Amino acid sequence: THWKHGGLVGVLGYGGGVIGRYSDVGEQFPDVAHFHTMRVNQPAAWFYSSEALRSICDIWERHGSGLTNMHGSTGDLILMGTTTDQLEPTFQELTHAGFDLGGSGSAVRTPSCCVGMARCEWACFDAMKLCYEITQAYQDELHRPAFPYKFKFKFSACPNDCVASIARSDLSVIGTWKDDIQIDRDEVAKYAAAGVDIQKDVCGHCPTKCMEWDGETLSIVNRDCVRCMHCINVLPKALRP
């Protein structure tokens, strides 16, 4: 590859959101002599209407390459490939369409979250609400890099951590439950009758060995539970947080 950082490019009033990309063989490939990337702040949990997506794609067709990446590892909607003179017009149209740029550089990166209570029955708190509130609270730190290094927030509404907050953030917030795991014993019996080896596949994989199965009754020592979600994932109809 022949991409290089050729200096800072951006839009009026912002220090982030645009990643400058230049080719060091631009004379051979003038159409991609500069091919800047723009990061668009995604809505919480990546919910879009088809109208919103059409709007973004139409803007990018007018001002950029038309290539997108949905989504980057931070969570932003990535618009890949435009020239310096098209950055400000793109930004203005995105703003009028109700979108903002995400974070880049040594700044707070765009916070992201799982679908949370909007779609998931395991959600233990409103991850979308917290993601929105943190995004609003750190607007200045997100758009105007002033940190020695990047900083990422991610919010997962349950310990399944579908947004990979532990692996991909500096501050991860993970929802859990306060009370005991709820057991539907009739459903446990149905799983056993269907051939699920509860001793091997559930109790045997419990990291703290807080579960017991005597062939008829499943019991849990909840004070020893570390909320790993394994048992709930294996027996979703029988166990609930």
UniProtKB/TrEMBL annotation:
The keyword Isomerase does not apply. InterPro entries: DsrA (IPR011806), NiRdtase/SiRdtase_haem-b_fer (IPR005117), Nit/Sulf_reduc_fer-like_dom_sf (IPR036136), NO2/SO3_Rdtase_4Fe4S_dom (IPR006067), NO2/SO3_Rdtase_4Fe4S_prot (IPR045169), NO2/SO3_Rdtase_4Fe4S_sf (IPR045854). It is an enzyme of class 1 (oxidoreductase). Its EC number is 1.8.99.3. Gene3D superfamilies: 3.30.70.20, 3.30.70.2500, Sulfite Reductase Hemoprotein, domain 1. Residues 31-95 form the Nitrite/Sulfite reductase ferredoxin-like domain. GO terms for biological process: sulfate assimilation. The keyword 4Fe-4S applies. Residues 104-187 form the Nitrite/sulphite reductase 4Fe-4S domain. GO terms for molecular function: 4 iron, 4 sulfur cluster binding; dissimilatory sulfite reductase (NADH) activity; heme binding; metal ion binding; sulfite reductase (ferredoxin) activity; sulfite reductase activity. GO terms for cellular component: sulfite reductase complex (NADPH). This is Sulfite reductase, dissimilatory-type alpha subunit. The lineage of its organism: Bacteria, environmental samples.
